Structures are given as C-alpha cells and as structure tokens.
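Bug #77: duplicate submission created two jobs. Keeping one. Sequence:
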Amino acid sequence: MNKYKIVLYGVNFLLNLKGGEQRIDFFATYLIEAEHPLDAEESALIKLKRDSGLDAIIINEPEDPPSVLIEEIEELDEIDDHVHPSIPFVFLAHEHNRGDQRRSQMDRNRYIEWW
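Kept job's structure:
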C-alpha cells in the first residue's frame, strides 16, 4: 500500500452553530493508505463525510451547495505510527471569491458537491 497526505478544501458551508448561521470554508488533512492516488482521494472524502458531523449542521439550500475540493495530494514514504490519521480542521471565514476562484481553477473531477 502507498501512503498519501490528502488536503481537502471545503467551500461555502452554511452551518447552524450555537451563535446562529455562519458560512465557513475549511481545510482538512487526512493521512491515507491506498493503492492509487484516486483511491486515497475517495477515502479522504468518505472519511470527511462520515466522521466530520457536518451533515447535522449544514443548512445550505440545494441551489447553493457546499463543495469539497482536493487541494493537495502528496505521496509519503511512510506514515508515522504516532500521528493521528486525521489532523483536525482549520476553519476560515468564508470569502465568496476565494472559493469560487479555486473551483474555477480546478478540473471538474477534482471537486464534488457535498450532496
């Protein structure tokens, strides 16, 4: 198995938080073992959707969906056994143009709509 670091960039997530609604972007990094880079990307996206708890607080309308972009993929020589497999999120205040610019620069196959 090959080892990969996958950085995901979440764009346009409208969340229902304790202080009210807030639109955020985020980075999430996953360390994945997989045969091929595309398998590693898919595993990271599955882990994000399964483990993040975001589904419970996303309140985007269908015509304004959040997206997840594959920001970076790096093959690693090894994954340190002492490193937690998922590095916590880095949240950012949403800047409308930042996400749109990144999405327009990415190949259509490199990002997915959340639902």
